[in-house]
């Protein structure tokens, strides 16, 4: 069992933490080997797995094999104004409810109750833990050569560096997401939220921010005045254990939550390190999304509740669009 090591640290910008100039520094160790956590890909972890459930400002580090300190996450409470969070709920809630079945290991272990109803789950046998490699359709008993997994209320907005499999975009190196193409005014309405997130990112993780921002500005497929190309929006979705793929490897993920009603759980955690964060409305979590992470179970307290998680990042292959402008 490892111990928390706390070290006082000054925060240069008072706007990030108005109550105190000092933030706890927590060191964590791996409680699972790399091989063990890899075997848990797509699986869920409950609250009891996490030795640290973080609900206050903290910087979290671990030491690599050479003893070098590596930043895992920085968490700040109540740094995003309510008026900006309200913009997200108003403009993005319905878009976040859009169901997708291609979320990979984040979608969780394959469950016949969670795959689309038209999939003949029993007959479709080519699979791994979280994905069918093609499926037989109940509609016509024919084989469909598409990857498919559990359905999730999750969507992307902003820009993307892959063609849409449902549109004829094969020759486009980058594209608007369907949300931006069809609802540009709503995206414009939420720009202040993303720009605020960008500012906090620049203050909390300046080294990674500087590299990411420079890369982001090399193409026009970037969210205005930010280091982000893309935003993932999730509605009341518990993710399975996964690492983010396709984003800029030298950057950082930025997670926020907007809420309606009351719920408990939904902690964002790094199960290999035994640490998770209770990210609530107004909070900001800068996190290394290239480490294994997931969410704990979300339980509603009120009949109707919303946990809308917002993840801002830069897609790695946006650089392919550089020569197009």
Instruction: Summarize model confidence as the mean pLDDT.
Output: 90
How far the N terminus sits from the C terminus, by CA atoms, comes to 54 Å
Taking pLDDT < 50 over at least 5 consecutive residues as the criterion, the unreliable ranges are 1-20, 165-172
Mass-distribution shape:
globular
Helix content range: 10-25%
Structural class: alpha+beta
Strand content: 25-35%
N-to-C SSE string, H for helix and E for strand: EHEEEHEEEEEHHHEEEEEEEEE
Count of runs of 4 or more consecutive helical residues: 5
The main sheet comes to:
10 strands, mixed
Q: Find the count of extended strands (DSSP E, 2+ residues).
A: 18
Rg over CA atoms, rounded to whole Å, is 20 Å
Layout of secondary structure:
Blueprint: E1 24-27, H1 34-39, E2 52-54, E3 58-63, E4 69-76, H2 82-96, E5 99-100, E6 132-136, E7 143-148, E8 152-160, E9 175-176, H3 178-182, H4 184-204, H5 206-216, E10 230-235, E11 253-260, E12 263-265, E13 268-270, E14 275-277, E15 284-287, E16 294-295, E17 298-300, E18 306-313
Parallel strand pairs: 1-3, 2-14
Antiparallel strand pairs: 3-4, 4-15, 5-8, 6-7, 8-9, 8-10, 10-18, 11-15, 11-18, 12-17, 13-14, 13-16
Helix pairs in contact: 2-4, 4-5
């Amino acid at each position: 069992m490892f111990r928390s090591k706390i070290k006082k640290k000054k925060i240069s910008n008072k706007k990030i933490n108005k109550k105190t100039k000092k933030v706890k520094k927590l060191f964590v160790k791996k409680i699972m080997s790399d091989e063990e956590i890899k075997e848990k890909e797509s699986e869920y972890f409950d609250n009891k797995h996490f030795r640290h459930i973080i609900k206050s400002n903290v910087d979290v580090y671990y030491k690599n094999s050479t003893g070098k300190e590596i930043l895992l996450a920085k968490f700040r409470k109540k740094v995003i104004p309510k008026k900006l969070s309200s913009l997200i709920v108003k403009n993005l809630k319905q878009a976040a409810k859009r169901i997708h079945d291609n979320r990979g290991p984040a979608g969780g272990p394959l469950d016949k109750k969670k795959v689309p109803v038209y999939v003949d789950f029993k007959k479709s046998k080519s699979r791994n833990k979280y994905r069918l490699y093609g499926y037989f359709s109940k509609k016509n008993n024919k084989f469909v050569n598409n990857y498919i997994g559990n359905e999730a209320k999750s969507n992307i907005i902003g820009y993307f560096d892959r063609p849409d499999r449902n549109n004829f975009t094969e020759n486009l190196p980058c594209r608007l997401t369907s949300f931006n193409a069809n609802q540009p005014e709503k995206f414009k309405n939420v720009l202040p939220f993303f720009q605020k997130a960008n500012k906090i990112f620049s203050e909390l993780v300046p080294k990674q921010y500087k590299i990411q921002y420079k890369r982001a500005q090399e193409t026009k497929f970037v969210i205005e005045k930010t280091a982000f190309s893309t935003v993932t929006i999730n509605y009341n979705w518990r993710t399975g254990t996964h690492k983010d793929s396709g984003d800029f490897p030298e950057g950082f993920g930025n997670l926020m939550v907007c809420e309606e009603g009351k719920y408990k759980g939904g902690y964002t955690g790094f199960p290999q390190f035994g640490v998770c964060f209770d990210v609530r409305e107004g909070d900001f979590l800068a996190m290394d999304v290239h480490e294994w992470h997931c969410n704990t179970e979300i339980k509603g307290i009120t009949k109707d509740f919303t946990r809308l998680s917002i993840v801002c990042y830069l897609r790695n292959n946006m650089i392919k669009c550089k020569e197009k402008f």
